[in-house]
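Q: Could you fold this chain for me?
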Amino acid sequence: MVKTINQSYKEKYQHEKKRKIFRKIFLFLVLFFGLIGGMVYGFFFSGYFSIREISISTEGGILLSGNQDIRSLVDSYLSEKKFFISRFNNIFLADSDKISVKIGQEFPAVENIKVEKKYFHALEISLNQKEAVGIWCYKKTSQCFYFDRQGTAFDSVTETRGALLVNVDDERGTFENLGQPVANHELLNLIFEVRERLKKIKIEALKFITSAGEDFRIEVKTAEGWEIYFSTKDDLDRQLANLEIFLSQKVTWEKRIQLQYIDLTVPNRVYYK
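A: Sure. Below is the predicted structure, expressed as structure tokens.
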């Protein structure tokens, strides 16, 4: 069949139209992927959003482990890579909560950790040094540690004694890691309460001993040189009431210096030597 001039023109027009549409689509795809590539480069590789400054502030003075060690930990986290990309050295990708948890895990001596982003290139870290309320010594391994009010061991220490801190010789427990509780909460609360209640009746507790031979007994060495044996199973109020009655009615001040111990572990009985 012989094509007419009109048909040839239409075919040529349709062909040219398709070429224009193809060019537009191709140009659009080039621009689209170029834009995506530019955004990826700008976000991950250009360094425009990279974290360049880390500031650490403390209220408790110089930290036991040192600010530089904490800075090194954060730098290590930020420099972690996946597929050759620094995943976290980016103000948008850095996880403040995760950084805070990492610091707490690696440095048990600090608390109240806050990590704040300062857009677009800085992290501000604030924290406090924990305050020791006592020294817990594990006699099996000859290791001593500061512990806080929650009972968490947070730094090693040489064995020392003093009235300002709660001093405990643990003949039963064993130590695993800093950040662990030195004992269960029931035992800790009992020790704190005994110490405060003894203060009220003018008895200074120098040291607490958890005896290896008797799980239910806590020994208290007083500043006067004699000891008190408390039961962890019996009612503490009743034991302290028995102690007060005994000291006021059975022992004069002159005889107190000759005491070796007062045993309150038997219900409604007081034994002494």
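A (continued): The CA atoms of residues 22 and 68 lie 59 Å apart.
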